[in-house]
Amino acid sequence: LALLLGLAITSAFGLKAAGFAGASALSVLALSVGASRVWGPAATKPISATLADAWNRVAQPLLFGLVGSSVALQALRPRLVGVSFAVLAVSVPVRCGTAFLAVGGRGLRWQERVFTALAWMPKATVQA
């Protein structure tokens, strides 16, 4: 794990310093895929659990906190806020309706389809 982490950090920062910022992220992904194929599932399962735990306890709250703190409320113009709410007012029903239709034909009751449409809504919010 330490070797993989060291190689990932070295390749990420090294390629970024060399002017290949996009390749740095790709190299980290390629290293992890290569390691999982070479090590096999028996060795990668505990590492995956450790990294998932670190992500859930440390990295994810830190990421969302940093993104939230980078929003400057004083810089928002009232017109922009109004347009943003209008976009949400139009897009949320369209997304929910599309999700409702997408799970149709799967044998779900209409209540389950509504639940699925509403449950998928935060996913798009976080991705945006």
Task: Map the helices and strands.
Blueprint: H1 2-17, H2 21-39, H3 41-69, H4 78-102, H5 110-119, H6 121-127
Describe this protein with a few key phrases.
128 residues, mainly alpha
The global form is extended
Mean pLDDT: 86
Q: What separation lies between the terminal Cα atoms?
A: 32 Å
Cα-atom Rg, whole angstroms?
21 Å
Determine the fraction of residues in helical runs and give it as a percent range.
Answer: over 70%
Distinct helical segment count:
6
Uncertain spans, ≥5 residues at pLDDT below 50? none
Reported for the largest beta sheet, the result is:
none
Can you describe this structure?
This protein is mainly α and 128 residues long. It is built from six helices and no strands. α1 packs antiparallel against α2 (21-39) and α4 runs antiparallel to α5. The chain is extended. The protein starts with a helix and ends with a helix.
In a nutshell, what does this entry contain?
This protein has six helices and no strands. By secondary structure, the chain is mainly α. Helix 1 packs antiparallel against helix 2, helix 2 runs antiparallel to helix 3 and helix 4 runs antiparallel to helix 5.
